[in-house]
């Protein structure tokens, strides 16, 4: 059965153009720096986000943790939002890899108050850890896009305190598409950025970390420590080049499909959605208890050829991607109505 997969945009598969590029990729040993396709990808990616250099890494979590590992020294404290991906969904890796302490701040749907950040920057005291880094996320993993003004204010505070800012930009290009800006308009407000080549861009593997030449030089060695020194990685980098050059233009279609999905779901009595929160390709919603037990929905959808995740913190999340078209959305809506009508 060919499933419609709403679990995440991580489930995307490479396009035929990517498969051809991977097959034909010129390769070398990237640890020696002689894989021409990786070198091309790193050069192109850095230019795309307005940074001096970039580095190919296996995954988004790898890229975020490598950035913390490179920016910080052991025992540092990292300031970040309480609901961000680095804190919530990266397996406690900051403690394991970088040996840092996280200091979370309550956020407003992913947006952190700059003044609350400034309050938490440590002074000099024998009892205090040293603040080493501020992390922000855009687009946020809750589906919201953070304003450029908020990012600018945080970056200004960080510079005033001589602190770096790392941007978890796993879905950076979704944020750029939503704001209708060049990605550089977002990444100007960070010292380093990680962005994924997979997810909505459809590459099978890989993310990029970008920053200054000095930062990337240090990160390259730290990547080797983490086991990320790949060899003939040009086969993967070839797909990444197609992702960055060709696939960004399709992200708005994913956003439009998500909004359409949300609008149609919201018409069903008992399904609760804030349509204003659908900024990118994610639809979060809950259902009244008397309408249906959300814990059973994944099994029912699976029978109809649709994969979804179960609820997390009382919410369901449907995620659109390049391979989900408008006709699929209509089928999803009709399936939801059919399941609820059987109750």
From TrEMBL:
The modification N6-(pyridoxal phosphate)lysine is found at residue 199. GO terms for molecular function: L-allo-threonine aldolase activity. Residues 5-286 form the Aromatic amino acid beta-eliminating lyase/threonine aldolase domain. Keywords: Lyase, Pyridoxal phosphate. One of its GO terms (cellular component) is cytosol. CDD domains: TA_like (cd06502). It is an enzyme of class 4 (lyase). Transmembrane segments: none annotated. It holds the Pfam family Beta_elim_lyase. NCBIfam families: GntG_guanitoxin, PRK10534.1. Belongs to the threonine aldolase family. This is L-allo-threonine aldolase. The gene is ltaA.
């Amino acid at each position: 059965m060919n499933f419609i997969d709403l679990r995440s945009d991580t489930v995307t598969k490479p396009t035929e153009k990517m498969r051809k590029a991977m097959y034909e990729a010129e390769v070398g040993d990237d640890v020696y720096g002689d894989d021409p396709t990786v070198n091309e990808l790193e050069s192109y990616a850095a230019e795309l986000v307005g940074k001096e250099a970039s580095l190919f890494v296996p995954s988004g979590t790898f890229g975020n943790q490598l950035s913390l590992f490179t920016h910080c020294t052991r025992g540092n404290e990292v300031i970040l939002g309480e609901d961000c991906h680095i804190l919530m969904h990266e397996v406690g890796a900051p403690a394991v890899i970088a040996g840092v302490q996280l200091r979370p701040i309550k956020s407003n749907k992913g947006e952190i108050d700059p003044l609350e950040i400034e309050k938490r920057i440590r002074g000099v005291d024998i009892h205090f850890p040293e603040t080493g880094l501020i992390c922000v996320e855009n687009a946020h993993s809750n589906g919201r896009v953070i304003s450029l003004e908020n990012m600018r204010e945080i970056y200004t505070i960080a510079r005033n305190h001589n602190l770096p800012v790392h941007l978890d930009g796993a879905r950076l290009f979704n944020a750029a598409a939503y704001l209708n800006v060049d990605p550089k308009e977002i990444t100007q407000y960070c010292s380093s950025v990680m962005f994924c080549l997979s997810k909505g861009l459809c590459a099978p593997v890989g993310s990029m970390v970008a920053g200054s030449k000095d930062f990337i030089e240090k990160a390259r060695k730290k990547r080797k420590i983490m086991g990320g020194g790949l060899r003939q990685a040009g086969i993967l980098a070839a797909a990444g080049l197609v992702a960055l050059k060709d696939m960004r233009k399709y992200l708005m279609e994913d956003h439009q499909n998500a909004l359409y999905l949300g609008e149609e779901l919201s018409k069903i009595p008992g399904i609760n959605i804030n349509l204003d929160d659908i900024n990118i390709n994610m639809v979060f919603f809950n259902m009244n208890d008397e309408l249906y037990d959300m814990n059973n929905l994944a099994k029912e959808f699976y029978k109809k050829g649709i994969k979804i995740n179960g609820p997390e913190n009382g919410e369901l999340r449907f995620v659109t991607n390049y391979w989900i078209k408008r006709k699929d959305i209509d089928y999803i809506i009709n399936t939801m109505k059919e399941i609820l009508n059987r109750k």
